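User: Okay, second chain of the day. Same drill as before: sequence in, structure tokens out.
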Amino acid sequence: MKDQIINLKNEAVGEILEAKSLEELEKIRINFLGRSGKINSLIKGISQLPAEEKRAIGQLINDTKKTIEESLQQTQESLKIKESKTEWLDITAPGLRPAEGHLHLVSEAISEITAIFSQLGFHRARYPEVEWDWYAFEGLNMAENHPARDEWETFFIDKLQNKKYGRGILTPHTSSGQLREMEKYTPPIRMINIAKCYRRQSDVSHSPMFYQFEGLVIDKGISITHLKGTLDFFVRNYFGPERKIRIRPFHFQFTEPSFEVDISCGLCQGKGCNFCKEGWLELGGSGMVHPKVLKNGNIDPAIYSGFAFGWGVERTLMMKSGLKIEDIRLLYSNDLRFLRQF
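Assistant: Same drill. Structure tokens below.
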């Protein structure tokens, strides 16, 4: 069997050295080193040898296998160099441009919203996503058992409690930033707070996690006229000069008076269509800051007044002309076919 192994080694090395291509070399490797190759056939025959020969023959087979592998590697490298030299290359041809990413639609919207309000002197604020019950509800004039709190479907955090501020929650709206801003600064205040919010809601127009932007202005002599003018400025700059808004009476516990804000439909330009029905789409809420909320923020309502508004970033984005995004969940689907369109 010793002579058989030596002859096999010589045969393999000879064929390897005569190989003309990488494809031919691969066939030789399979023939000698493959699962059904000649080396494995020799290994299977070791069990039939006398005990005193098994070790020596096994070592010889291993040496042969190693020699074949080294020969294959050297010839493979040589053939690769040879084939690369014969491959034609046009160095004047344009290269392949690497793929470039871009900001997500929501990130672009946040940047644009921030830039528009900065023109009016608003500064960008950021407040905690994990908030205390007092800042999110009670300090905003919503007592513990008030029915208005049911609308938010709040996520409460286990084993997070504060004696003064109540239970820990995932903030359901950016309005909690109003109290923190009032605690932090004395008027005049012009804040735009953009942050993640969390509610137990999920359908075509709601997501468990979403973004809101909260505007707050507090100063002497602030009125509804200032609120309407600020909203008009934003709508014309974000949606275009052809879009209009209207405010209509509503009820929010933390503003008095309170208003819902509607925007003219971007599909029919306010004429009425199957999407909007009457030419208007709800955009968000707004109103004059409730005197009790001002007091909770350590601001005297006899001296100062203010307005606030809170809108969903995704909802505002979806109402932009030309986008035609009818399901908020598309924005967070991570479907590149959708995201690459923008």
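Residues 125 and 193 are 5 Å apart (CA to CA).

User: Thanks, on to the next one.
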